[in-house]
Amino acid sequence: MIKILELFGGIGAPRKALTNLGVKHKSIDYVEWNEKAVRTYNAMFDNRYKPESVVGWDLKPDILVHGSPCQDFSIAGKQYGGNVEDGTRSSLMFETIKIIDNLGTLKPRVVIWENVKNTLSKKMREAFNHYLTDMESLGYTNSFKVLDARDFGIPQSRERLFTVSLLDGEWFNFELLEKKTMRDVKDFLEKDVDDKYTITQPSMISKLPGKSVPGTYGGRMLTEIKSHSLTITTKQMRCPNSGVIRVNDDEFRYLTERECWRLMGFDDTDFERALKEHPSQKNKLNGTLYHQSGNSIVVDVLEAIFKSIIEYHLNIKGER
Question: What is the distance between the alpha carbons of residues 189 and 106, in angstroms, rounded to a whole number?
Fold first, then answer.
């Protein structure tokens, strides 16, 4: 039985990944400040967690997974870089350090941290190096790599930095991860889509493929989804977004909320439970469900990481 602790847990991608692998596990706790995300998680996994802060928690998991808010490392954000003194959102990653330190000899054997690729940029690297050094001081050996969801079967160009920290001097070998051929994006798209997803806003129409006006909005334009989407974002009615679907020669539409959830590795049962908790309004896009998918971790990537950890480091093959 694997005991996991989900910090900044979102809608529960780590738990979903372990469920898909058929691994016996117990979420000893889940910590998430966003009330709507907590409600979705409870609906998906039949829990009754309440919104909490990670500050001051003292638990004893086998695997600790955290994905502190990415805005301060993101190119699209303000890029404060997790500055502890400034109290930025991503500085919450250092709360994880405090939690692990408080566990003493009962520290988790594995700690997984996920964040945006820009964490490795020159401006952000100091904070990341600080995190690595702190983890080393607690007895962990760090390995990190940028992983693309497309290498794990998901037709989404989503590159994220994953750091796996192991106790007892062990290195995590990312080269052992099981890769999968990218599936056809058509397998993730809905067949009958409501007209409300058709792009009709003049400001967005001007940025459609072949219609973008040079010099406007930094020259950005919307990208047509052909083989894969771009990174699933928390909003679709903006430029740039995750890409648009061609309906006919003159019309395009946004990805639906369900499609975004599918492209993050969640199934329709998960989505239906979330939709029941956060119903859509007539003729309006569901901002809550877009936001929750864009803030999550791709389940299929976590599956590959968990599978490798279980097979090469935790030695619990007989407990599935």
Answer: 45
Residue 247 lies in domain: 185-294
Q: Which of 70, 99, 239, 274 is catalytic?
A: 70
Q: Check: pTM over 0.85? Answer yes or no.
A: yes
Residue 70 designated active-site: yes
In contact, 306 and 76? CB cutoff 8 Å: no
Q: Which of 161, 156, 72, 80 is nearest to 116 (CA)?
A: 161
From residue 173, how far is each of 74, 157, 214, 299, 307 by CA, in Å?
26, 23, 45, 19, 12
Cβ distance 265 to 258 under 8 Å?
Answer: no
Q: What is the pLDDT of residues 211-244, one digit of tens each?
A: 755 555 456 799 999 999 999 999 999 999 999 9
Q: What is the pLDDT of residue 67?
A: 82
Q: What is the CATH number of the domain that holds 217?
A: 3.90.120
Same domain, 117 and 190: no
Give per-residue pLDDT as tens, 177-210. 999 999 999 999 999 999 999 999 999 999 998 7
